[in-house]
Amino acid sequence: MSTTNSSPQSNTLPIQQQLIPDYQLWWISNYEKQIKASRFNIISTPIWHEVIRHQLDSHFAPVDMNIKECLQQNISAVFNSVSADADHDVIDKTFVKLPKLFWELLKENEAYRQLSRQKLNTSEQAESVIKLYADIANGAFVDSLRVLAAIEELVTDKTLDQSRLGGAIESITSKRLIKEDRDYTPYANLVSKDMRNAVDHGGHVVRSNDYSLTFTENHTEKTIYKSFSEVNAELKYMLSGLSAFVQVILNIMRDLNIIWLPINSSNSEQELTAWYRLRLSTPEVLCNLVEIKRLADSRLQFLVNLSGFDNVENAKLCYCLWSAIYAFQNVLPAPPPMDRLFITYESPRANNTFVAVSGTAVSQYISNSITFDELLTDATKDAIMTWPTNTDPTPIQQIDYQDIITNDYIITNIDNPNTETDIRFVADVEMARVTRPNHVKLLVPSIISVMRSLPSGGDMKTLTKHGQMPADIIFLRVFHDLEGKKGVSPDNDNFIATIQFDVNRKFPIYHNLGLLTFRKIRTETDIEYGWNPSFG
User: Fold this and answer.
1) What distance in Å separates the CA atoms of residue 448 and residue 535, rounded to the nearest whole number?
2) Contact between 530 and 499 (Cβ < 8 Å)
3) For the purposes of burial, counting CB atoms within 10 Å of the CB of 297, is it exposed (0-12), middle (13-18) or buried (19 or more)?
4) Which residue has the higher pLDDT, 61 or 160?
């Protein structure tokens, strides 16, 4: 597999002078649609700035301009008051928490989006929203306040409280700062005082239509009520405000020409990892993991996990290798000798690409002893797995199947593992009152009819039959009690039978498996029963 015409040349500039490594420029120039490589010829910001900007623009609601202007004005005022000959390292160190904050924010925003898509009942949704609110307030929001505190400490000898949510808010909204014309109150109010008190000092109860929030204020217990929609709106507003904060910090860094962060072994492991991940990301391909792990046989393995858009297999393979080489050579500080590098690339409509290459071959490539094509050959010998993109034009949707409950049975754990030729459903069934096989058979037509009519969403990553059409195969595990033992074995009195419907009467699931030969198999036209001998 030749890569001569598709791979980047090695970059000879010192790493601190590279606004974008050559392999990332090659990737963006050829494959990324929303970010054009020509931008990097006319702007003077590094690629990791663009990663943050693009992700915020793509996934967050438009920011409140009042909050953005408040932050921009106040933070700029601090740096304008710092003398020109101030130690630049001190200024840099106020920003080292930015990568960690960015990844936290991305994670929490995705949690909010997932929560918005889930089909939960009202109380479950309400409980999840308030928990996520508390997690973000005490996580990403407090971290942003710590960055503000570090910035303010550039112009004051006083150490600001950063230990908890309430104290951090009070520190950056102090009368002293307001008197000095630096009022962060609009940003601090992203977490309302009532919500802050409930998060910090009290608790909450989910009622039928609202939250009851209880906390102690001035030695007096108070209870307030907020509707579900109010708290959800405040959560969304807080995420938008955090996005504005990160954007303002990036603007300040651009104005100060800060293209590098002095993050090293003296920083926390979380800050180090966040910085490594950011440097290995592009606007449309994010690095989710950089890790050195010792295997069971004592070998050292270097892991890199990437996720992004669908692309041709050869391009993904080359990009995986280049990312690992770059990380191994330029990102990790003096990594120990590696036995193997293992890289994965995840995308929406293809199974994961896996690449494993020996540490010896990577070292030989870095020292110019072998070519990139020879390195690729080594990877092919070790372990390599690529998959084509699923180009099925039929609409695909993710379906969360709800339990089906009747007076006679309960159907749960419904899964839709389709193949290219069959629509299949697998589920567990509870039949609490049956005592004989005939009792089961009376209920089966109804269950099969209900299951066959379920919509099939398909699989994003592989070509499968799907859509609004009757299922071809249905496989059921039937129990007396779904809360009881689930094993499919003759000594499990809770297990009744396996039931398989197959429109083609081939019954391919669990057929002729030695572990299941204890079942008494009985076939009636298009239905196969695998009875537990102890039942009935």
Assistant:
1) 21
2) yes
3) exposed
4) 61
